[in-house]
């Protein structure tokens, strides 16, 4: 599947191929049709990798199923 990902401060977000998620015990996977960016995503990109526990970070959490 495709995901827009933040890879580091000053870099444009990248459209990357990522593995399909696999649910663990007690989890489900929801088929999301689209996800929008909001000010939180912009803040993460402006503050940069100092605030990120891991990179790359998939952007968009305003989902539409
Ligand atoms: Zn948001």
Structural account:
This protein is α+β, with helices and mostly antiparallel strands. It has a domain at 32-65. The protein is built from one helix and five strands; from the N terminus they run E-E-E-H-E-E. The protein has a three-stranded antiparallel sheet with strand order 2-1-4, with no helix packed on it. It is globular and about 35 Å long. The two termini are 15 Å apart. Zinc ion binds at residues 38, 40, 61-62. Zinc ion is lined by residues 38, 40, 61-62.
Features:
65 residues; three-stranded antiparallel β-sheet; two-stranded antiparallel ribbon; 1 helix; 5 strands; 14% helix
In short:
The protein has one helix spanning 39-47, and strands at residues 2-6, 14-17, 34-36, 57-58, 62-64.
SSE layout and pairing:
Blueprint: E1 2-6, E2 14-17, E3 34-36, H1 39-47, E4 57-58, E5 62-64
This protein binds zinc ion.
């Amino acid at each position: 599947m495709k995901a827009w990902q933040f890879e580091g401060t000053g870099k444009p977000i990248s459209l990357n191929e990522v593995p399909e998620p696999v649910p663990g015990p007690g989890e489900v996977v929801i088929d999301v049709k689209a996800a929008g960016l909001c000010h939180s995503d912009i803040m993460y990109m402006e503050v940069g990798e100092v605030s990120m526990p891991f990179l790359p970070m998939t952007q968009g959490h305003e989902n539409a199923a």
